[in-house]
Each structure stands twice: as C-alpha cells, then as structure tokens.
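Case study 2.
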Amino acid sequence: MILETDPQPVVDPDHAPALPSIDDLWRREYPVLVRLARALVDSPDRAEEIVQDAFAHTLRRYEKLTNPGGYLRTSVINGARGELRKREVRRRIKPPPSPASTPASDEYLADALAGLSPKRRIVLVLRFYADMPDREIAEHLGVRPATVRSLAARGLSDLREVIER
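Prediction:
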C-alpha cells in the first residue's frame, strides 16, 4: 500500500497571514515561555534570561519567519538544553568539596594551622590548598625540596597532636 501525503500548501506571499507584532507576541508568549524555561532549568532568573535571548534571536529573523511562536519555543528549549549542558560540565569539572568545608571545621583548622611555625604552615597550605608540588614550594621559599618534605612531615605531625587533644 502506498501512502500519499498531503502536499504542503503553497502560500501566496501576497495573501500570507500577517505576523503578529513583536509586542503582541511578547505579551502573549513571554509568560508562557518563562514558565516553560523555569520548569526546564529550575531557576527563575536564568529562565527569564533564556526567554529574552530567544526573543532577541527571533527579532533578528522576524520578517523571515512563518511561525514566530514555534521558533520562540524551539529557541527557549534549545537555550534551556544549553544551560543544562553547561551545568553538567561545571558539575563534572568541579572538585568535590573538601571534608573541611564547614565553617566550624574551617575555623578549627585555621586555629590548628596558626599554632604551627610560619614555614610549616606555609608548606602545608601551599601543598594541600594550593596543590603545589614540592619543587615549586621549594622555589618560593628558597629551600631544597627535601626541606619542604621535612617541613610538611613535621607540620602534619604537629597538626595530628592538636587534633588528638
């Protein structure tokens, strides 16, 4: 069985339906599209930005569009998808929070570090917070890498004593 499809109607440009004004389109579609975007991205501020961007894109092509409402909806959905992709990338590359991320434990750690000698404190902070290699820390302090390792070991030992108290 051969299925015949309806041919696309030919639209005479002289008799094409008139496009609504961009103001009418804004009044009619903006609240609906913001609700749609908010449901997709779960952020009212970001949803409004996505819809406004979609209107900006639509305005650039407005005279060429036959269905500006559909174009807007597609733009909003694509904008929301882009936002969700960005969030996923940020989530993937964001380092996991350190165990010392609560304010109380940060204060406790800061107090414990304050009890160390300045060189030991600097070595531990550069090694564990700045994630610097021993060679680079040694260059900054003007000492040998073996000295950095020694200062780190002694600093960690001092921290263990403070924590065990």
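The radius of gyration is 30 Å.
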